[in-house]
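Hi R.,

Here's the input for the LMY7XDAE complex you asked about:
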Amino acid sequence: MAVIIDGKALAAEVDQDTKKQVDSLLKRGLEPHLVVILVGDNEASQIYVRNKSRRAEKLGIKSTVIKLDADTSEQDLLDQIEKLNTDDSVHAILVQMPLPDQINEFKVIETISPKKDADGFNPVNVGRLSAGQMDHTPVACTPKGIMKMLEKYQVNVDGKNVVVVGRSNIVGKPMSYLLLNANATVTVAHSHTANLKQLTKTADILVVAVGKTHFIKVQDIKDDAVVIDVGMDRDENGKLTGDVEFSSADKVASFITPVPKGVGPMTISMLMQQTVELAKWSKE
Ligand SMILES: Nc1nc2c(c(=O)[nH]1)N[C@@H](CN(C=O)c1ccc(C(=O)N[C@@H](CCC(=O)O)C(=O)O)cc1)CN2
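And here is the predicted structure with LMY7XDAE in place:
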C-alpha cells in the first residue's frame, strides 16, 4: 500500500512558517499586500478567491479582492492591472483563471509586472524558470507545491524518469521546468501523445494534470511509482475526484496524493509564501 501524501497537513506547516515571516516583516513596517482580481461569477473561482483572501487574513497578509463584471472589457482589466503595477503599497497581483471569452488570458498575464506576479505566469518569469534562474523568480503555485511535497516526503527526483501528463501553462509546463532544474529526466505527454498509457507505465514519478476523472488506472502505473494527481474533477454524482483512480492506484504506487487534500491545499499556501517573498524582494 502506498504512503498517502498529506497535502493538507503540509500546507498547514508551510502556513506556520509563512506566518512567522509575515510577523517579522510587520515588525519592520512592511505589510505584504496581495490583490486578487476576479472577473465574472464562476462559482468555483469565487470559492477559490474567498479562500485566498481568508488565508491571507489568517496569516496577517493584507488582501484586496477586486470583483469585475463578467462583461468587463479586456482594456478595462488591463488598465486596472497597470494601476496596481504602479501602486507601491501592492506587492503581489493575481488574476483568477479562467477568464471570460472576450479577454485574452496571455495579454493579461503579460501586463502584470513580473515583480508583482503572484502566480509566476508572466513570460519573463516563465523564461527565468526555463533558464534555471530560480532566484527571485515567482513560480506557478501548484507545481511549486508539488516540489515541496516531494521534498517533504524525501522523494529524490534526481535522475528519475518523470512523466508529466498535461501541458498547461498553469501546471504541466512549469512542472516540467522545475523537475528538469532538479535533474529529473522529464517527458511531457498530452492528448496527441502516441501510446500514452505505455509511456505512463515507464514513469518513476507520474504527475497527472489532464482534468479527466480517473483517466489513469492501476494498469497504467509502474510498480512503486510516485503518483501525483493534480486533477480536480467531478464524477457522475458530483463528487470531487482526481485524474487517477486512487482506490486501485494506491495498491501499486509507493507514494500517492489524494483528491481532495492532496495537491490542492498546497496551491494557496504556496501563493501566500510567494506573496511574502515578492514583498521582501520589493525592498532589495
Ligand atoms: N490565477 C490562478 N487561477 C487558477 C489557479 C491558479 O493557481 N492561479 N489554480 C486553479 C484554482 N485554484 C486556485 O486558484 C485552486 C484550486 C483548488 C484548490 C484546493 O484547495 N482544492 C481542494 C478541494 C476544493 C474543493 O472541495 O472544491 C483540494 O484539492 O483538496 C486550491 C486552489 C485554477 N485557477
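One thing worth noting: Residues 48, 94-97, 119, 141-142, 170, 232, 240, 259-261, 264-265, 267-268 surround LMY7XDAE (CB under 6 Å).

Cheers,
M.
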